[in-house]
Amino acid sequence: MKIPFAGMAFYQPYKGKHDLYFKIDTVEPDNSGKLLFGSSDFHIPTFLYERENGAFDWLTQNHDGESQLSFRISKDWTEFTLYEDNTGTEGADAFHEFGSLFCYAILNYDACVLHGVVMEYNGMGILVTAASGTGKTTHTRMWRERENALIINGDRCLCRKLDGRWYAYGMPWSGSSGEYINRRVPITAIVCLKQAPENAVRRMNPFEGTLAMMQRIFAPVWTGDMQNKGFDLAENLASMIPVLELSCRPDFEAVDVLKEAIENLGEIR
After folding, report:
1. Left, alpha or beta for 207 (phi > 0: left; psi -120 to 50: alpha)?
2. pTM for this structure?
3. Average pLDDT rounded to a whole number, residues 210-236
4. What CA dihedral angle connects 143, 149, 153 and 157, to 10 degrees?
């Protein structure tokens, strides 16, 4: 298996204890498990089965129903075994698919992933979230051009709470943006971007912020403890970090308006 360049950018030899383990091996296939979620109508048909012993099988297919990738996942989501790869991509597709599994596994470590851009400005971590096609990439790249902001990840916000403080991290999965840096920054603000004819910022209340985070978090669609952990983290994130709604046009004035709001967070109501 060849690790893609994005993965190698985060590679650090480490001989101590690991939280998650990934390996390639042969296992006994088991199709008798309970289907937790899945559909052949997905862009990539994907299915998750829970086995009788509590472990899971994560399977992908092509649209002809032929098996593509098969992962065996331990009951506690700490061990991942790739036991089938018929994609012909020398591990590239498997690495990409593992990014989805990673988003679920880290929920057990006071961490979550949001759909959005992580950027750093003057030591502040700013998360810009929005539905696909709204303009978060355009807006954050204007920050880079105008304010020399650093884009740490162009598509996914990896957030983790450590010692009572939330941090954002780079990660090797960045959608189609191709922008990723192995870096950590404390989170100062979360921005929910929406298109509008005028540029304006308002601070969301904790309830609004929680709903917004729940719409952007990578949490299991099947019910259970992991889904609850995802929602709890979304609520905690919104209660501890200011969540701003930026109504904006795709112009540099929007950058100026948001910059002023972030620099004066204590005055925004």
Report:
1. alpha
2. 0.92
3. 95
4. -80
Q: What is the pLDDT of residue 268?
A: 47
What is the C-alpha separation between 194 and 255, in angstroms, rounded?
13
- Give the tokens for residue 182: 């192995």
- Residue 247, C-beta contacts closer than 8 angstroms, at least 6 positions apart: 194, 195, 196, 198, 199, 200, 201
Q: Which of the listed residues 64, 85, 108 is the one where a domain comes to its end?
A: 108
User: pLDDT tens digits, residue range 121-161?
Assistant: 999 999 999 988 899 999 999 999 999 999 999 999 999 99
Give the residue from 158, 164, 160 showing the smallest Cα distance to 182. Answer: 158
CB atoms within 10 A of CB 254: 24
**Whether residue 104 is found in the same domain as residue 115:** no
Single out the residue in 108, 129, 160 at which a domain terminates.
108
Residue 245, domain CATH = 3.90.228.20
Q: How many domains does the chain have?
A: 2
